[in-house]
Amino acid sequence: MKTILRKTITTLFKAIWGFIRKALGSRGHGLLRDLIEVVEENAKVFITYHSRPMDSASVCTKRDDVRNQKRLAIIIQGPIVCKNDFTLETVRIYKEHYSNALIILSTWEDENSDAVKRFEELDVSVILNKKPDYSGISNINFQIVSAGSGIRKAQELGVEYALKTRTDQRIYAPNVADYLSNIVEVFPVSRGYERQRKRIVGVSLNTFKYRMYGLSDMMIYGYIDDMLLYWNAVLDQRKFSDEETQKASTSLRNFALWRVCEVYLSTEFLLKVGRKLEWTLKDSWEAFADHFCIIDREQLDLFWPKYNRFEYRWLGYTEKINSEEMNFREWLNIYNNLGNKNIRENILD
Fold this sequence. Notes:
α11 (281-291) crosses α13. This protein has helices at residues 2-24, 29-43, 86-97, 113-120, 140-156, 176-186, 224-231, 242-248, 252-258, 261-272, 281-291, 297-300, 328-337; strands spanning 72-77, 102-108, 125-129, 161-166, 170-171, 200-203, 220-223, 292-295, 302-303. 42% of the residues lie in helices and 11% in strands.
């Protein structure tokens, strides 16, 4: 029934969209604006929207020509997204925007061979990983395996820096390689942690200000030795009872102490570089100030169509701290002026 309803709605929308294009031009933004204004008037909100090209041929932005550039590998990990050739078109965009970078697709041995061949024809280094026996919470072990093998391949190829991304995400912005390289030069890693060479750069998307040590694992950039240290994590073989899982959802503190997914990866890294974790909000923010840098998703024009199409998934205008992301603004305030903040530790409870 749901399938029939979905097909009916899709067919109806295509018919309406065809009418819009004929009546108002090739894009139909005029009518869309009118519809949005009706919603705004009734809901008492302002609505914005943004469209991105599906195919690489329609992305005409150009990168700057630079004399010197750090040797970079882009690791795209996860299952190939074949719908709309999403992963393949992403690679084609990267080939234009990062012409000097090595591109590595780290996926699974059960992928369709014809699909894999299309990447190899683009001179992409393809790794076909064996899936781990236990996926872990939220497939964390799948990510450790695919990201880790990609980073190791990048080291073998002699790169200086690595950018770990996902097969279901796409960076549209040009000049990102220079931007990330400049970030780690402008903000050197804090002294006292000799095992970490450079600062690890993460993205605001799913990095939450009040999730202790919770650096988002979606996109991570860093010096190759640091990236190896970060992604050479032991597979998380823990299994939790319903009671343990329920307890983790009762507070922000308990969720962090559950130590799964992003928190597991970042705390493993912090322990390896010699940081003693105090499991306080203050220490978490200090860890972000000392070891990481958070850049805005918008600076990358990062697109992630999974789950929904909200341009700003977590941005809201009510006091909802559990979904407040840490962006560059918040990170810089912590980095430069943490001592001026009155930190409310009880907010985690």
